[in-house]
C-alpha cells in the first residue's frame, strides 16, 4: 500500500504571503505519494472572527472589523497571485457568505452553532488560498471540504468525533483522491450528522491532522511550528530551554495535559493507538531534526516546565457545619461537567473544595450561580499555574521566587504551584 503522510500548518506558518511561499517550499521538497495538507486559519483570523461574534452579540457594528479581515486576506493574495487570478472573487465570495451568516437571526440558545458557522470561514478561506497557490506553482493538488470526511456529534464548539464514520469516509472519499494528487483540507472544522458545521475546540487543527492520519492509517504526521520541536519549557519564557530529540507518546500527552501549547492535547491518542509517529518541526528551519513522538523505551528525567496563564482559583466552602464528603465533590464536578470546564488542580480540606480552572467566557458566572445555594464561593482571577515535571529544589525555588503562592501540590515527579501573576 502507498505510504500516506499528513502535514499540518498552523496560523503562524501561513500568516502572510512570504509564509505561504515557505509552505510551498516545504511541501515541494518533501512531497511523497500521498500527502494530506491540513491548514488552520491565517494568522490570528479565528480571534478576529471571535471578536466579530462578540460585537454581534452586543448588538454593535462589526462591519469595520470584517472589512479588516477581508483586507488582510486580499493583501496576502496580492503577494501571491496575478491580479486577474480567480482567487480574488473566490475570497470576496466567502466574505459575502460570511456577511449573510452574520446578518442572520441569532435565536436564543443556539450561540454555539452560530459560533461554529462563523469561525469556520477562517479555515475555508485559508485552505482555498493555499490550494490555489500550490496549483499556480505547478504543484497540482485537490481541495477537500473537511466537513465531508470528519463527522462529529452536535456538541458545537467541542464536537466529539464519530471515529467509525470518519474512517469510513476517509477511505471512501479521501483515499481515491490521494492516489491522484496531494489533498489540501481545513483543520478545526467538521460536520454533524445533519451536515451542520461543527468545530473541535480552539487550536484543534493538530487534532484534525491526527484524525485524518488515523482514518487513513497514515505513516507519519508532521506539525510545522515556529519552534524547533517540543522543548522542556516555552522558549519565549525560558531562555535556557532544551529540545527533545524524541519523546514517548505518554510523556508528550502528559505535557499537553499540563498546558504545553506546542501540540493540542487530543492529538496524541489517535496516533499512539496506531503507533503513527508524530514529528514536530520548525517551518523556519525545516531541515532541522525536530522532535519525534513515538513509543520510546525508558523514562525521561529532564525537568519540564509548563506555565498556564488565565487561571482562576475557586473555593467552595460548606456552610452547614458538615465536613467535605463525596457528595459535595460530586455536585461540584457535575456542574463542571455540565459547563464543559476541566479542573487543572484540585485540593480539599475539612470544610472546602478548591479548584483551579481556565478563564472562559461567561462560565465562572454560571458555575457560581448554579452552586450558590450549597456553598459559600470565593474566587481569585488572573493567576498562573506552574507545573514542573521531574522537579528539583533549585528549580522550584527559582520559579517561585518573588511570587505569591496560593496553592501548592507535589508528587514524587510533579510539582504544581499556583501563583499571582507578578506582571498584572
Ligand atoms: N484556527 C483555529 C484556532 O485558532 C484552529 C487552529 O488554529 O488550530 O483556534
Ligand atoms: Mg490558530
How would you describe this protein?
The chain has 2 domains: 5-225, Carbamate kinase (3-Layer(aba) Sandwich), CATH 3.40.1160; 304-419, VC0802-like. The protein is of the alpha/beta class. The protein is built from 12 helices and 16 strands. α6 links the parallel β3 and β4. The strands form 3 sheets. Strands 3-4-2-1-7-9-10-8 form an 8-stranded mixed sheet, sandwiched between helices. The radius of gyration is 23 Å and the shape is globular. The chain starts with a strand and ends with a strand. α2 (45-57) runs antiparallel to α5 (111-136) and α6 (163-178) packs across α7 (205-216). Aspartic acid (ASP) binds at residues 10-11, 40-41, 46, 122, 187-188, 202-205.
Write a short abstract of this structure.
The chain has 424 residues and is an alpha/beta fold. The chain has twelve helices and 16 strands. Magnesium ion (MG) binds next to loops.
Amino acid at each position: 500500500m502507498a505510504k500516506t503522510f499528513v502535514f499540518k500548518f498552523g496560523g503562524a506558518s501561513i500568516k502572510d504571503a512570504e509564509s505561504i511561499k515557505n509552505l510551498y517550499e516545504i511541501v515541494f521538497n518533501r512531497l511523497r505519494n500521498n500527502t494530506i495538507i491540513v491548514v488552520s486559519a491565517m494568522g490570528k483570523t479565528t480571534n478576529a472572527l471571535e471578536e466579530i461574534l462578540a460585537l454581534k452579540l452586543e448588538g454593535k457594528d462589526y462591519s469595520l472589523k470584517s472589512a479588516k479581515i477581508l483586507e488582510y486576506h486580499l493583501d496576502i493574495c496580492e503577494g501571491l497571485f496575478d491580479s486577474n487570478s480567480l482567487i480574488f472573487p473566490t475570497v470576496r465570495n466567502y466574505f459575502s457568505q460570511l456577511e449573510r451568516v452574520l446578518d442572520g437571526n441569532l435565536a436564543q440558545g443556539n450561540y454555539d452553532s452560530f459560533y461554529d458557522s462563523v469561525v469556520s470561514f477562517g479555515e475555508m478561506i485559508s485552505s482555498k488560498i493555499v490550494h490555489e497557490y500550490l496549483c499556480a506553482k505547478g504543484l497540482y493538488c485537490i481541495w477537500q471540504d473537511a466537513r465531508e470526511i470528519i463527522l462529529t456529534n452536535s456538541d458545537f464548539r467541542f464536537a466529539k468525533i464519530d471515529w467509525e464514520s470518519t474512517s469510513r469516509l476517509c477511505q471512501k472519499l479521501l483515499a481515491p483522491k490521494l492516489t491522484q494528487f496531494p489533498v489540501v483540507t481545513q483543520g478545526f472544522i467538521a460536520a454533524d450528522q445533519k451536515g451542520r458545521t461543527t468545530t473541535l475546540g480552539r487550536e484543534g487543527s493538530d487534532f484534525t491532522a491526527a484524525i485524518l492520519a488515523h482514518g487513513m492509517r497514515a505513516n507519519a504526521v508532521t506539525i510545522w511550528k515556529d519552534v524547533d520541536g517540543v522543548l522542556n519549557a516555552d522558549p519565549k519564557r525560558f531562555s535556557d530551554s532544551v529540545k527533545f530529540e524524541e519523546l514517548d507518546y505518554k510523556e508528550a500527552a502528559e505535557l499537553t495535559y499540563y498546558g504545553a501549547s506546542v501540540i493540542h492535547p487530543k492529538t496524541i491518542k489517535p496516533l499512539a493507538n496506531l503507533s503513527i509517529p508524530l514529528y514536530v518541526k520548525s517551518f523556519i528551519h525545516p531541515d532541522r531534526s525536530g522532535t519525534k513522538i513515538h513509543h520510546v523505551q525508558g523514562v525521561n528525567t529532564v525537568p519540564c516546565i509548563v506555565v498556564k496563564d488565565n487561571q482562576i482559583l475557586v473555593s467552595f466552602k460548606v456552610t452547614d457545619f458538615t465536613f467535605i464528603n463525596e457528595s459535595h465533590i460530586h455536585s461540584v464536578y457535575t456542574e463542571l461537567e455540565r459547563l464543559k470546564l476541566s479542573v487543572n488542580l484540585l485540593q480539599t480540606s475539612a470544610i472546602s473544595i478548591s479548584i483551579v480552572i481556565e478563564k472562559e467566557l461567561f462560565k465562572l458566572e454560571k458555575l457560581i450561580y448554579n452552586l450558590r445555594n450549597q456553598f459559600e464561593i470565593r474566587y481569585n482571577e488572573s493567576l498562573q499555574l506552574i507545573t514542573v515535571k521531574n522537579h528539583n529544589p533549585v528549580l522550584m525555588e527559582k520559579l517561585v521566587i518573588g511570587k505569591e503562592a496560593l496553592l501548592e501540590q507535589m508528587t514524587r515527579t510533579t510539582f504544581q504551584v499556583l501563583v499571582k501573576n507578578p506582571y498584572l
